[in-house]
Specification:
This protein is of the alpha+beta class and 311 residues long. The protein folds into 2 domains: 2-79; 91-309, Endonuclease/exonuclease/phosphatase (Deoxyribonuclease I, Chain A, 4-Layer Sandwich). Helices cover 33% and strands 23% of the residues. Strand 3 (143-146) and strand 4 (155-159) form a beta hairpin. It holds the Pfam family Exo_endo_phos. One of its GO terms (molecular function) is endonuclease activity. InterPro entries: Endo/exonu/phosph_ase_sf (IPR036691), Endo/exonuclease/phosphatase (IPR005135).
Length: 311
């Protein structure tokens, strides 16, 4: 029993240290990384709370409960049911996928497109030769905005409907594009901003900050109608960077994943390490449904969202 007690003290101590470090997120990229593992920290805290209670180790029970509360509170909006926000305009189905270059299997990708039949598709981390994948589009997506392949973070937009005012902004860095376009289904238009954000490590973290700030600016510059910001943002919903995107200000974007549970999209082959970093954020529109697609070969899973536009 002494060994078990010692192991509990060490485990709860490490959990408390990680939880405290997460508070220092704005100060350095290392504690900022810890924030992304809220689901894992909450699960560990729950397990250690139960173990401490069963073993009657009051010394570690209290800090385990404190850690459980601290790591669970940010997750509550994603656990409780949220009623769909209905719009008054047409429905648009959006699919987003990080291809991981050549990892995505063309056959599985074809099956995904045939099953979901999205209206708008955003692809990131493009292949050198996109032909094996775009063959799946056939004649259904005649309208396209594709960034010249200058880096692994380039993006491409495909649509059933006309694309206008298309632009690819590289002011943050040549290899860090932010795509913006207007897609117009019948009787409405939708501003689409697509991005594959820089990694949250080292010097890249400041670039990610600037790139996401630019993406938010693009989402609202000159737009008063429905807006979606989609792509691999390389950040989770409980990070400060994500909070800046969704914080109520003069304008803000709503997180379409709220109320849909822990929909992890990256490293999901490893359930203990999966992270929700692929997002669809909306404004002046309602998210009717959001779901994660099957493994198509990439280290990311596809995200499909049904959005109803507001007129």
């Amino acid at each position: 029993m002494r060994v078990i007690g010692l192991l509990l003290v060490i485990a709860v101590g490490l959990l408390a240290l990680a939880t405290l470090l997460a508070i220092l997120e704005p100060a350095h990229w290392v504690p900022a990384l810890i924030v992304h593992f809220r689901w894992q920290l909450a699960a560990a805290a729950l397990g250690l709370t139960l173990a401490s209670w069963i073993c009657q180790r009051r010394l570690v029970l209290v800090p385990a409960v404190v850690c459980l509360i601290a790591n669970t509170v940010p997750l509550v909006p994603y656990l409780r049911t949220v009623e769909p926000v209905m719009g008054t305009g047409p429905m648009v189905r959006i699919l987003s996928l990080n291809l991981r270059d050549d990892w995505t299997d063309p056959v599985k990708f074809q099956a995904l497109i045939d099953r979901e039949q999205p209206d708008v598709v955003l692809l990131t981390e493009l292949r050198g030769d996109m032909a094996p994948l775009t063959a799946a589009f056939k004649d259904h997506y005649p309208h396209r905005l594709v960034a010249p392949r200058l880096s692994p973070l380039d993006v491409a937009l495909y649509s059933r409907w006309p694309i206008s005012k298309g632009e690819i902004d590289r002011q943050v860095g040549t290899w860090l594009p932010v795509l913006k376009a207007e897609v117009c289904p019948p009787q409405a238009c939708l501003t689409v901003v697509g991005v594959h954000a820089a990694l949250p490590f080292g010097d890249f973290k400041s670039l990610q900050d600037r790139q996401l700030a630019l993406a938010k600016e693009k989402a609202w510059s000159g737009s008063h109608g429905p807006v979606v910001l989609i792509g691999d943002l390389n950040t989770t919903p409980w990070s400060e960077n994500f909070a800046r995107l969704t914080r109520p200000e003069e304008y803000f974007l709503s997180d379409g994943s709220r109320g849909h549970g822990p929909q992890t999209t990256f490293l999901s082959r490893f359930p203990l390490f999966g992270l929700p970093i692929d997002h669809v954020l909306v404004a002046n529109a309602g998210v009717i449904d959001r779901r994660i697609g099957p493994d198509v070969g990439s280290d990311h899973l596809p995200v499909t969202v049904d959005v109803q536009l507001s007129r």
